[in-house]
Write a structure and sequence with these properties.
585 residues; two-stranded antiparallel ribbon; 56% helix
């Protein structure tokens, strides 16, 4: 058939390709496919055979039209939200050339602030006489690394945080794990500008004379300044509006198919959508935990304690205590709770070659009889374990609620929200046609949500592990350690929705307060610095990462099989035998 005059087929294809290639259009395409899938799922569910056609009397002939109309409305709204996302370089702030000033972030806004905070007014003598600060060496700072006397260095100045440790909003373990270290980069990447002026001066006691600043560190700090100038620490509300539509679609679809439909097919599709809802909601929970949504610590924490706990069933307080430690001491055998998983899993030989004291759990970890059995077969049980891993998070959340040993924001609020979560999930499960179907509904929803756990572990479990604390010299300073212990997942932009920001774990660990919708741009800039300084940058596809982690688990399992039972193992085995004998007697 002849083409109309002036019609250029190649130009049309180029235009379509360019349109689909834009981030907003890819996002639109992803949401479109999601909503179409919901429509198809509803049609299948409503037309599937049921044992009791009188159940749920909603007319089948209207199901498709209602769902299609809702999908169309959501599509129009999300398409509008995807428009006008172009970057405006004219809005960039000027390059700062004053070495006494620096750009910092404060609740999403970039401000130019003094590099060093002023002396505290509490030190009246120093303020009046302009007396210079006492000078220390890093060796002297490093010697003060206990709760009894805890010093840190930030921007070349020394702070005595001994009296502040237990009052730290991020938990005392974060400070304890950085005791005696240069915390310049860790501190500036986790704190807003106001903290430098309202809290730091109180604890200022001197300055350090020999803090090394390596060339690659200078470049990563300069990159942070550029990110601040370009406004990349600012939250894009359209992104969260789109995410809200997706979450709403998944939750409403899950409840509709589980409650308003009668067939087992519809219920299982509803369970699948609920699992996907939990997986997507975890991304929002992660953002709230890092205060990258409202940019206000208390507001984000409150949202996490209410919406997060009530709809996801996982304590924000517990998550932040664990996750803050993970970021500061990523893959440390003794200090990172994310790799302290025995007796079920050991991510590396270092985690069981000798007993170790966990600073997070405040107990000893060692290879006993039960651990040896499970760890030796961990590569076989890994995926089934991920399917039920969520139940452990529920348990950890309630343990945190009832524990009075640790300070916790919104403890009562979270207890109520977690109770609400358990109530509505149980109530929906009990509406199924049989007990068997109820159990299957619960297990399937949690198994689908288990995708999240796989996404979390593949970025760290196969990477370097180490004993003790890092940040000692150029080989393990802050930025280098993020690359040694963290890996990215390569994926096209249209899959960013599916990976909920976890595909940019390297960039997230380097600059944890950059909103996830800006991390793809940050990745390009980070890789340039790595290439310049010959820093290994680990990144692979999702399935390559899964295979690498599975191979690592198998290799560790083989190491566990080589060992012989120690005296402690034999004693533990004897205890297990006594317990077994008492139960079977």
């Amino acid at each position: 058939m002849a083409l109309p005059p002036g019609f250029n087929n190649n130009s049309m294809l180029s235009s379509i390709s360019s349109s689909i290639g834009s981030p907003s259009s890819r996002y639109s395409l992803t949401v479109t496919l999601l909503l179409i899938g919901c429509c198809i799922s509803t049609v299948v569910a409503r037309t599937a055979p049921s044992n009791d056609e009188t159940l749920h009397a909603a007319p089948k002939q209207y199901a498709y039209y209602i769902t299609a109309a809702g999908a169309a409305a959501l599509l129009m709204v999300q398409q509008y939200l995807s428009s006008n996302d172009e970057d405006d370089e004219s809005a960039y702030l000027p390059v700062n050339k004053d070495k006494t000033m620096t750009y910092r972030e404060d609740r999403g806004k970039t401000i130019l602030a003094p590099l060093l905070p002023e002396k505290s007014k509490k030190n009246k003598d120093a303020v009046k006489t302009k007396k210079p600060l006492k000078r220390y060496t890093m060796k002297q700072v490093a010697e003060r690394n206990t709760r009894e006397e805890l010093w840190v260095s930030i921007d070349g100045q020394v702070y005595d945080l001994t009296k502040f440790v237990d009052r730290h909003p991020g938990g005392p373990l974060v400070i304890e794990n950085m005791a005696g270290k240069d915390c310049t980069d860790a501190f500036m990447n986790y704190h807003q500008a106001r903290i430098y002026t309202t809290m730091l001066p109180t604890y200022l006691i001197g300055e350090v004379i020999n803090v090394p600043v390596y060339p690659h560190v200078q470049d990563f700090r300069a990159l942070r300044q550029d990110l601040l100038r370009q406004g990349l620490y600012k939250t894009e509300w359209k992104f969260y509006a789109k995410l809200g539509l997706i979450l709403g679609t998944l939750l409403v679809g899950a409840l509709y198919l589980s409650l308003a439909c009668s067939s087992m097919t519809s219920h299982m599709i509803g369970a699948t959508l609920l699992g996907l809802f939990w997986q997507q909601l975890a991304g929002l929970g992660h953002d709230l935990g890092h205060s990258t949504v409202t940019r206000n610590f208390y507001s984000d924490h409150w949202l996490g304690s209410t919406l997060g706990c009530g709809l996801m069933g996982i304590s924000t307080g517990w998550w932040k205590r664990s996750h803050n430690c993970h970021h500061v001491v990523c893959n440390s055998v003794e200090h990172d709770p994310d790799i302290q998983l025995m007796p079920v899993v050991a991510v590396a030989k270092q985690t069981f070659e000798k007993p170790f004291w966990s600073s997070y759990h405040s107990r000893w970890f060692q290879m006993d009889a039960l651990s040896r059995i499970l760890v030796s077969n961990q590569h076989h049980i890994f995926f089934p374990l991920m399917m039920v891993a969520r139940f452990n998070l529920y348990a950890q959340s309630w343990i945190m609620i009832f524990s009075r040993e640790y300070h916790m924001y919104n403890r009562k609020v979270e207890a109520l929200a977690l109770t609400f979560f358990a109530s509505w999930v149980l109530a929906v499960a009990l509406t199924m046609n049989s007990w068997t179907e109820s159990v299957l509904w619960v297990l399937l929803s949690h198994a689908v949500a288990g995708i999240l756990h796989v996404q979390i572990i593949i970025s760290h479990w196969a990477m370097d592990t180490y004993h003790g604390h890092a940040y000692n010299d150029e080989s393990d300073e802050w930025y280098v350690m993020q690359f040694k212990t963290t890996m990215d997942v390569d994926c096209p932009a249209w899959m960013d929705l599916i990976h909920i920001g976890l595909q940019f774990q390297v960039e997230h660990h380097l600059y944890p307060q950059v909103p996830r919708h800006n991390l793809r741009h940050v990745k390009t800039l980070v890789k340039e610095i790595c290439k310049k300084h010959d820093i290994e940058y680990n990144s692979m596809t999702f399935w390559e990462a899964v295979l690498k982690n599975t191979a690592n688990l198998k290799a560790t399992a083989m190491e566990a099989r080589k060992g012989e039972l120690s005296a402690e193992d034999t004693k533990a085995n004897s205890v297990m035998n006594l317990l077994h004998a008492s139960v079977t007697a």
